[in-house]
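Cast an eye over my tokenised protein here and flag anything odd:

===
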Amino acid sequence: MSASAGELRAEAERNFGERIANNPYPGRGLVVGRAAEGDAWLQVYWIMGRSAQSRNRRFVVEGATLRTEPVDPAGIEDPSLIIYEAMLERPAAKPTQYVVTNGDQTRTILDTLETGGTFEAALETREREPDAPNYTPRISALLDTSGGEAELRLSFLRANRADPARTDRFTAQYAPPPAGLGLGLTTYEGDGSPLPSFRGEPLWLPLTDADGGGGAGAEELLDRYWGALDADNRVSLAVKRIADAGGASAILVRNRHG
């Protein structure tokens, strides 16, 4: 049974309140969807941290690329899981494919697409993160505007509950969300020890102003999500606006440090 636009918006606001605003630790998260006003797509990505090393990071924008970097390089003991490109585009000249992930699988996906491979094939080569006992999931999204109707693919690589040495893979294509709505994934359900991995379907989440009924530019959306993330654990947040027909994009960031 289909849901009305009003029902989806109510669900998105409920998810935002329960899973983001009132959740001390959803971990890293991404949302991809339609802007409420204007012909544009939006990608939202954030990182959080409980340890000094995890908090010792910030987002840096280089053209159309979003990456993490250390605030104090001397404070990074192991950069392998925390320093990476989070948003990439292809092709460089007139991009039509936009990747956002929570790890270095961003580069794996882009390189695979560049050689004619698929989003799914790229992620078949990767596993959940090896950070026992949490085994952080890898969350990834691809927005492809190269055809007629835009295509949205989401992926979640999670440790198998019976044998965490193995990886369960959830990858699917979704119809484009209505204006003002996005589909999102977070790495965790909330705080804990070990951290409980996200479960279930991707979340409907709002890409509107705080009232849920009006438009929101990238700056307003940045403010809304930053304000919702736990102030002790939030580290960095980015919002990327993509023209509907592909091509030019712009990224705004907010960092805990600088």
Remarks:
- The helical segments are 5-21, 52-55, 105-114, 119-124, 218-228.
